[in-house]
Structure formats: structure tokens, C-alpha cells
Amino acid sequence: MPGSVFPDLLSGKRRGRVLSDQGREVIPGIIEAKDLKKTFGSTIAVDGIAFSVQVGEVFGFLGPNGAGKTTTMKMIACVSPKNSGTLTVLGMDPDTAPAAIKARLGIVPQETNLDPDFTCFGNLYTYARYFDIPEKAAAEKAEELLRFVQLEEKRDVAIEKLSGGMKRRLILARALVNNPDILILDEPTIGLDPQARHLIWEKLRALQASGNTIVLTTHYLDEAARLCDRLVIMDNGRILVEGTPADLVREHAGHEIVEVENSTAVVSCLQELHVDYEVAGDMIQVATESSRDIARILLDRCSPGKVITRPATLEDVFLKLTGRKLRE
Questions:
Q1: What confidence score (pLDDT) does residue 36 get?
Q2: Residue 185 neighbours by CB distance under 10 Å
Q3: Which pLDDT band, with edges at 50, 70 and 90, does 279 fall under?
Q4: Where does the pLDDT of residue 222 fall: very low under 50, low under 70, confident under 90, or very high at 90 and above?
């Protein structure tokens, strides 16, 4: 069962009560970080961040390339040691108990690293044996996971014969062979078509419902909004904001967005009306609580060629906080 290594948290039974300065009980997270820092030579990849992941939630790390999110995930996964600060995973220190932590993690890497010498079943069975799962139990687990990710018909098919979506599902299945307490996913649906993405989302929600804690990175902002209970947006090694997707959108982007063509006449008109706006390429965006009212004013006073109204999204928050400049 998930959570066997960390029973006090997962069962709701704790050995002692930890109180805040205000006297409220503080529930420790399954992952806790404080002043966490990672450098590579003179480059600061993670710059003194703090976060807490609670048991059973989906927690996301978002940010442009080079923001520090993947480095943070590697420290959690005991792949890259921290330089300073504190980090605990499942109540243990990755510096002193990496093997014990890794035994309770499931990893879905960004790259496809399945063994081409084995079939779908063979990949799962062999990986299960790495965890010293007995042969019979390993075979049963492999069959169970093939059914879970809907690949039972591909049981004996070589890896090279699978589509990209099938490979991603098999990698997810492989991450589950050891009944992990924490799933760490780096771009879990990268390159997949909409049908495959939705199937992965369905499986991740089922895993969360069964008690798994999920930590993920993704460049798909709609994916983060759908899956994450809470998330952080990082840039330059630091956490810019943290919260639920809905709260972040409401706080940083408003409820609705009005988009209008970027022209000198429209800009002058908005300035005369003292309306705050943001330039987004060939469009201008106005965050508002009432898109209908703003759109009517724009149409009446500014004579734009086109006006679009839509709900504010997590992508609006992301671009507002990290900018629109392309990161390589």
C-alpha cells in the first residue's frame, strides 16, 4: 500500500503535535524544503527556495527553461545533492538516506528511456525485479500495470513498435511497479496528442485518488491548471508565487481578459481612458472583472478592428510574471 514508509502522515496519526507561533497545529509535508540552494560552479540554479508538499496532493513546479524547476526535482529524487539549506522527503534527508527514499519514489523522466531489448511486459517485469520483488509477484504486477495504462494488448510488442503515447503510458506504468508514495513526473505528456494526454491525466487523477502524492513539471499550462492542487512558478532559481491555480489567476490576472489589436490609435485611446494594459506581440491585453464593459468602451471609443474576450488563465499569470521573451 502507498505510504508504508511514512505511516504517521498517511494514516493521519502523528507521534507529536507541532504548533505554530499562533498555537495552530502544523502538519508536516511529505516533502519539506527551506532555504534550499543548488549551484553549479558560479551559476546559482536554485536560490534559497522554500516549499512544502502535502500528502496526497498534486504539486507543480512551473517556470521557463533554466528557472531551476528540474534541478529542484533532481534534489527531491536524490539525484543531485543540495549545496545548502534543508530538504526532507518522506521524513528523511536525501543526503543521508538516498536509497531508502528512492525505494519509495516513482520517476517519470522527460526522455523516453525504456529498454529496447524487452517487450512491454519485459520492461515492467525486469524493472520490478530490480526492487527485489519475487518473480511471481513481479509478473502479476506487470500484468496489472499493463491493464491500468491500457496496454494489455501490447504486452508482447517490442518498444520500437509503440507510438509516442504508448511509450509515455508504459513509462508511467514502470514508475508504479514499487507502489511508490511519491510520483515525480518531468513533462509527463510531452509530445502527446490530445487523446493520449487526456488518458494520462485520467490515470494521474486515479493515482491521486488512491493516495499517491504527485510532483510534476510541465510546460502545458492547461495541464497544470487541470491537475495541480497547488503549484509554484519559478524564475532565475527563485519562487515567484505559490498557490492554487485558481487563486493565482484571480490574484495576478483578474477574472477576464480583453484582447484588442496593437495599434498606435488603440494605445493612445487606452492611455486617454487611463486603462491599464499589457502589450502581447500584435495584441494588447486588458485584465478586467467585466470584459463586456471594457469591450463596449473599446468599441465605442477606440474603433479597434477586432476585440476578443476570454477568461483569464494560468498562462496569463505565467507570462505576466516571467515575461514573454523566448528562453533557450
A1: 97
A2: 25
A3: confident
A4: very high
End-to-end CA distance of the chain: 42
Task: For cell 519562487, name the residue.
Answer: 239
CA distances from 80 to 46, 130, 240, 285 (A): 12, 21, 23, 41
C-alpha cell at 256: 477576464
What domains are there in the chain, each with its CATH number?
Answer: 254-312 (3.30.70)
DSSP state of 219: S
Contact assessment for residue 182 and residue 105, using Cβ atoms and an 8 Å cutoff: yes
How far is the C-alpha of 100 from the C-alpha of 28, rounded, in Å? 19
pLDDT at 23: 53
The dihedral sign for the CA sequence 43, 248, 206, 7: positive
Q: pLDDT > 90: what percent of the chain?
A: 66
Residue written as cell 502527446?
A: 192
DSSP 204-244: HHHHHHTT-EEEEE-S-HHHHHHH-SEEEEEETTEEEEEE-
